[in-house]
Design brief:
Order of helices and strands: EEEEEEEE
Distance between the termini: 36 Å
Strand content: over 45%
Largest sheet: 8 strands, antiparallel
Shape: globular
CATH class: Mainly Beta
Radius of gyration: 14 Å
CATH superfamily: Jelly Rolls
Number of helices: 0
Helix content: under 10%
Mean pLDDT: 92
Low-confidence stretches: none
CATH architecture: Sandwich
Length: about 110
């Protein structure tokens, strides 16, 4: 499924638009604009995103399971329904100590101020 598969102006159940795959991180972009993007991701147990620093704030919403989000070396354990903002220009790692799904929203505009 890509961003063209989600019909605008129609309700969807986000947790159902992406599946878990063994030994994988799966990502589906649902909105992709020059000003930012929204993706839905699933992580199988033991998977992680490599440590990185991005120049934008990132809003993470856990929609299934539990995630570990490490920001500047501080571990944050999030459960279904919880969210966190990863500040721009900070080191971060997203880890799956158990499988989980999340919505990742990155806003790329507004930093000129």
């Amino acid at each position: 499924m890509n961003n063209l598969d989600i019909e605008k102006s129609k309700a969807v159940i986000m947790v159902e638009i992406i599946e878990y795959e063994p030994h994988s991180v799966v990502s589906k972009t649902i909105i992709n604009k020059t000003t930012g993007n929204v993706s839905v991701m699933s992580f199988d147990i033991g998977e992680a995103l490599v440590e990185k620093i991005i120049p934008f704030d990132a809003f993470v919403q856990i929609i299934d399971g539990r995630a570990e989000i490490v920001i500047n070396g501080t571990s944050n354990l999030l459960e279904t329904g919880q969210s966190i903002i990863i500040p721009a220009h900070t080191s971060n790692i997203v880890k799956a100590n158990e499988r989980f799904k999340m919505i990742l929203t990155i806003i790329k505009s507004g930093y000129e101020q």
